[in-house]
Amino acid sequence: MLTSVAAAPLRLSQRVVADPPVVLAPMAGITNTAFRRLCRESMAAALGPGQAGGLFVSEMITTRALVERNPKTLRMIRFEPDERPRSLQLYGVDPTIVGAAVRMIVEEDLADHVDLNFGCPVPKVTRKGGGSALPWRIGLFEDIVRTAVREARGAVPLTVKMRVGIDADHVTYREAGLRAQDAGVAHVALHGRTAADFYGGTADWAPIAELAALLDVPVLGNGDVWEADDALRMVRETGCAGVVVGRGCLGRPWLFADLAAAFAGRPERIRPGLAAVAATMRRHAELLAEWLGDEERGVVDFRKHVAWYLKGFAVGSELRRAMASSSSLAELDDHLARLDLAQPFPADVVGQPRGRTTGARAVSLPEGWLASRNSRAVPFGAELPDSGG
After folding, report:
1. Nearest CA to 353 among 193, 236, 165?
2. Contacts with 334 (C-beta within 8 Å, 6 or more apart), sequence order
3. C-alpha distances in angstroms, 40 versus 12, 18, 48, 156?
4. What pLDDT does 292 receive?
5. Which of 116, 151, 305, 348 could form a disulfide bond with 102, CB atoms 3.0-4.6 angstroms apart?
């Protein structure tokens, strides 16, 4: 076990500091207000009073939906009164609309930090030329980033999150990183997979190390941080300035307590028994109901989390299915009461992947997308009308 590593606080502005340098990755349908609260509270408890904590980023917000004031999107960008700094991720393909969204964020004080999504590999995004497909069109990529930085007016730091490239034959991270740096971003986060890799195999950290050596702005590493010690190893092996944690915290918001301890050089790690996990599950469902303003909607939204929380515990398939079909807190309580709460944390799941593990696949792209790297043309119909998954 690594017990210490040199990692300075991540300072993006006077208001935006991540100490330790840990970022909760934006995840569609996951990193809403409820889940961010669980993660923030976990890290805060491990750090103690008065400590800064990490950055906990919202779900992906589409720029078109934001500027059109889509009701669902406006709910998704609500932060809690004690949530500071407020980090929001934007997805957009049209520089004009991205600029309008950033301008709106600044003028209406909607967030303290904006991250630009150039990493999403899902087909509904890449087939529009967005997410991890976009940096291939390096001219359009540069226009988007420069417009966003200009409209931020120095009031809100801009960062970018991206992948290595579309596939092994269409690598983009070096030039995209340099262009983003020149445009004035505060940091660049790199996931060590291509879009074609999707979420399969093992993340390649070598490009993270290369980009960290190439750029003057901080580079954050993303990919296969399943445990706090993976984060320390990533920083040590790549020289990155911090880590972005996604699937590793699914069903484990307490991972952020482990990350706080790890970066402070402390060896303790949280391994909650099923009683503590069940209590967290109940609170998560309750927070979702509160956030959505409807108990049934909140519990239904919680269903996807059940398998992640129970991973490795001896819970029968019938009970798992029943719990993942709950429609009220009372119904969920009845199922939780049937668990063998005396079970300790299952040691065999430590360090194991969570969430999607779909492997290599062909990347859906707009027709003719790979023909020209320097095109600044916005693909027809590229801007998505709603936010999230």
Report:
1. 193
2. none
3. 19, 12, 12, 21
4. 94
5. 151
Sequence-separated contacts (24+) of 239-242 with Cβ below 8 Å: 239/209, 239/212, 239/213, 240/208, 240/209, 240/212, 241/7, 241/8, 241/10, 241/21, 241/187, 241/212, 242/7, 242/10, 242/18, 242/20, 242/21, 242/22, 242/23, 242/218
Is the confidence at residue 2, as pLDDT, over 70?
A: no
CA–CA dist 254, 245 (Å, integer): 12
- Catalytic residue flag (residue 240): no
Residues 239-255: what's their mean pLDDT? 98
Catalytic one among 39, 120, 240, 249? Answer: 120
Closest CA to 191 of 370, 23, 386: 23
Q: Give the pLDDT confidence score for residue 5 in this predicted structure.
A: 72
Place of tokens 């967030």: 111
Kind and range of the H or E element at 147? helix 138-152
Asked whether the predicted pLDDT for residue 305 surpasses 60, the reply is yes
Verdict on whether the full-model pTM lies above 0.90: yes
Q: 282-296: string of b/e by CB count within 10 Å (b at 16+)?
A: eebbbbbbebbeebe
The CA distance from 385 to 250, in Å, is 27
Vertex 254: Cα angle to 251 and 260 (nearest 5)? 140
Alpha carbon separation from 213 to 167, 174, 322, 342 (Å, rounded): 22, 11, 50, 48
Q: Are 259 and 232 in contact (CB under 8 A)?
A: no
How is residue 274 written in tokens? 């099923």
Q: Where are the strands (E) in 175-288, listed by range?
A: 187-191, 219-222, 242-245
CA terminus-to-terminus distance, the chain: 36
